[in-house]
Automatic annotation (TrEMBL):
Source organism per UniProt: Cloacibacterium rupense
Keyword Nucleotidyltransferase (UniProt): no
Entry protein name: proton-translocating NAD(P)(+) transhydrogenase
Topology of this chain in the membrane: Multi-pass membrane protein
Pfam families assigned to the protein according to its UniProt record, in alphabetical order: PNTB_4TM
Enzyme Commission number(s) of this protein: 7.1.1.1
Function: The transhydrogenation between NADH and NADP is coupled to respiration and ATP hydrolysis and functions as a proton pump across the membrane.
Gene name of the encoded protein: pntA
Length: 102
């Protein structure tokens, strides 16, 4: 299968991805800097989907397919770090708005 045939078969998906890129740039470009950190910490917490996807990749991989197993393991590790980091940043931001204890 050559690349032109692949583009022809997946033309609609390619258009959707290009549209998503432009919409994402437009939406993120208009976010005030005050809201950037809360939105990013929440987005990091949503990356639990990456962890589930990586677990599915590792579960469906053949036992001798080391590339899929390694990539799945890295996906679980990096996704977990991202989720934990999102919760830590969110927790620190919420502490800024809480009343000081005497």
């Amino acid at each position: 299968m050559d690349i032109i045939e692949w583009f022809t078969q997946n033309q609609q998906i390619i258009y959707i991805v290009i549209l998503m890129i432009f919409v994402g740039i437009e939406v993120i470009g208009h976010v005030p800097s005050v809201l950037h950190t809360p939105l990013m910490s929440g987005a990091n917490a949503i990356h639990g989907v990456v962890i589930i996807g990586a677990i599915i990749v590792m579960g469906k991989a053949e036992p001798d397919n080391y590339l899929a197993l390694i990539l799945g393991f890295l996906g679980v590790i990096l996704g977990t770090l991202n989720v934990v980091g999102g919760f830590v940043v969110t927790d620190r931001m919420l502490e800024m708005f809480s009343k000081k204890k005497k």
